[in-house]
Amino acid sequence: MKPVLAVVTNTEKYEKFDTPTGLWFSELTHFYDEVNAEIPVVIASPQGGNTPFDPVSLRKMFVDGKTEKHFKDPAFRKALRETAKLSDLNPDDFSAIYFTGGHGTMFDFVGNPELDAFTAKIYSNGGLVSAVCHGVGALSTVSINGRALIAGKTITGFSNTEEKLAMRTKHVPFLLEDRLKEVGANYTKAALPYTSFTQVDGRIITGQNPQSARAVGQIVREALLNKPAS
């Protein structure tokens, strides 16, 4: 089984605010735990090297036992200080790509030509494309043969309501829900904010918020393990 590529952000602060941001930690760990037990997960970032953690994601209310264990694991922390650089990797070597979230991703995932091309190649190879929360924004600029990857696809991602509740509407360069609709996606969301919600449309798997990362991992794992041999 080819490994899964999990992409994390290198962005430490919002562009127009002196406020720290970065990776929403559990959106990596919950997915990692679901997948890595049976399928290797490689962690990479646009620039390589360190991925900062959004300090809000490390508050006790957002950290369960397994996530805390990863945070205290020197080897895991080292892997996040030394992530692979995307340009050093080959999309042909991966069965799926997963975009973690955190507000930092809105600045170095979206409109990144290298990420766009990498994602398009994995999808064109028959692989899975998955993302959670703000990481779904990475899919908004991916195109294949001149058509937006998510146009006409049913997907989810961090909602406008959740952004307002997070008090970050003025910090972000755009509202993700609005952007996904503008690209032509069939955007859907849970009836209640901050509850687990996922969508699967063919080989595109998305989760709405931090509470959805584990479910995205489960779906990706099962889809890959049950995929017919080519």
UniProtKB/TrEMBL annotation:
Gene3D superfamilies: 3.40.50.880. InterPro entries: Class_I_gatase-like (IPR029062), DJ-1/PfpI (IPR002818), Prot/Nucl_acid_deglycase (IPR050325). One of its GO terms (cellular component) is cytoplasm. Residues 79-215 form the DJ-1/PfpI domain. One of its GO terms (biological process) is methylglyoxal catabolic process to D-lactate via S-lactoyl-glutathione. This is Type 1 glutamine amidotransferase domain-containing protein. GO terms for molecular function: glyoxalase III activity; transferase activity. Belongs to the peptidase C56 family. HSP31-like subfamily. Keywords: Glutamine amidotransferase, Lyase, Stress response, Transferase.
